[in-house]
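User: tokens in, sequence out, please.
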């Protein structure tokens, strides 16, 4: 078979797989207010992961102490999602780790390292796909500038779903971007539902539909279709390039409320937004599906900090924000509010170097505020 024929054959398989994926999308949501036991899986991750997770777990054990005693909440440590283990087994998420994860309802996860190049897929991307965590929810606030943004990033499709499965011909490489009706509809609904339930009046859709006519064209069309079911909410649309500019335009940026984006644009724009808030170390991130959900820091595993002996100065703020989102997700609203309030009030500043506080000192101060 010629290389071209082989490529066409692979493409056919990819299309068939993607059609099958859509067939298997479920939409049965778990109701955590009615669930007898909620199991929270704890995954350390790589680099600074174990250090910031240790602080996050201390806080969780304090906030949920009664429920942990009564076993209505179970904390379950999941081992083995380390870079060494993943490289040895050649698996982005080893099978036994994935099986353990599936016994949990929600996960709190430290950052995992993805080696550049090579074959190993990002553990994050694998987990988002395997657990069908289709909504990446990232809040960014800067109250003193009137900024209160909520990003709803599609988390399972776009450039990511076949990101490790592109095709190479001599002198040429091709990657694929996949956008489905069902995949777009569910993220759009999640964003508009959030807006409706939280008194937001505007959802801004981000695409590059002038260029990516099929995929972004579809994303745009379906989002507007969904928007029609929410007449009280204004839906506007921006191309990704001007949206990137809007976020640094101080005269208009505070008017944005909920932002709805396909996967890759969401990846980029949420880093930009987090930087505006004070750095990627300050933002939390939720990956939500109908059955499972995973909460994590928005930043990476920061091996540089460890190499320079600065691990103790790693900032747990981002993972703690994710923890607050986890508590809200499982309907532990009071605990979530306590943590959010303490995070907002905590006077201790971690800078990631010796000029700031250690993660431990920050968390001590936080726990004191929680205990008030
Ligand atoms: C994020 C990260 C991930 C992504 C990486 C770690 C695969 O940048 O959560 O935004 O690209 O989605
Ligand atoms: Mg990112």
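Assistant: Sequence out:
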């Amino acid at each position: 078979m010629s290389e071209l024929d082989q490529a066409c054959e692979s493409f056919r398989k990819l299309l068939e797989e993607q059609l099958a994926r859509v067939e298997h999308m479920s939409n049965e949501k778990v109701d955590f207010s009615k669930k007898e036991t909620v199991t929270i899986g704890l995954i350390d991750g790589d680099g600074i992961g174990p250090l910031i997770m240790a602080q996050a777990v201390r806080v969780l054990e304090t906030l949920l102490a009664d429920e942990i005693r009564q076993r209505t909440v179970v904390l379950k440590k999941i081992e083995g999602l380390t870079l060494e283990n993943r490289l040895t087994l050649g698996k982005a998420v080893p099978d036994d780790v994935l099986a353990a994860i599936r016994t949990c309802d929600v996960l709190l996860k430290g950052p995992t390292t993805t080696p550049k190049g090579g074959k190993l897929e990002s553990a994050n991307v694998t987990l988002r796909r395997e657990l069908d965590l289709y909504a990446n929810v990232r809040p960014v606030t800067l109250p003193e500038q009137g900024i209160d943004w909520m990003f709803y990033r599609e988390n399972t499709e776009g450039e990511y779903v076949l990101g490790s499965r592109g095709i190479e011909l001599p002198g040429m490489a091709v990657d694929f971007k996949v956008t489905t009706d069902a995949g777009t509809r569910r993220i759009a609904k999640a964003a508009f539902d959030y807006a409706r339930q939280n008194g937001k009046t505007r959802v801004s859709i981000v695409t590059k539909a002038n260029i990516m006519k099929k995929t972004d064209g579809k994303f745009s069309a379906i989002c507007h279709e969904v928007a029609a079911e929410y007449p009280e909410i204004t839906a506007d649309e921006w191309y990704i390039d001007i949206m990137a500019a809007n976020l640094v335009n101080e005269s208009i940026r505070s008017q944005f409320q909920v932002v709805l984006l396909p996967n890759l644009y969401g990846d980029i724009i949420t880093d930009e937004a987090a930087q505006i808030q004070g750095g990627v170390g300050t933002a939390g991130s939720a990956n939500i599906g109908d059955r499972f959900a995973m909460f994590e820091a928005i930043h990476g595993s920061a091996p540089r900090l460890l190499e320079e002996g600065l691990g103790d100065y790693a900032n747990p703020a981002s993972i703690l924000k994710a923890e607050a989102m986890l508590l809200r997700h499982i309907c532990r609203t009071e605990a979530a509010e306590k943590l959010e309030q303490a995070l907002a009030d905590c006077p201790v500043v971690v800078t990631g170097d010796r000029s700031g506080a250690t993660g431990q000192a920050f968390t001590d101060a936080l726990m004191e505020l929680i205990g008030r």
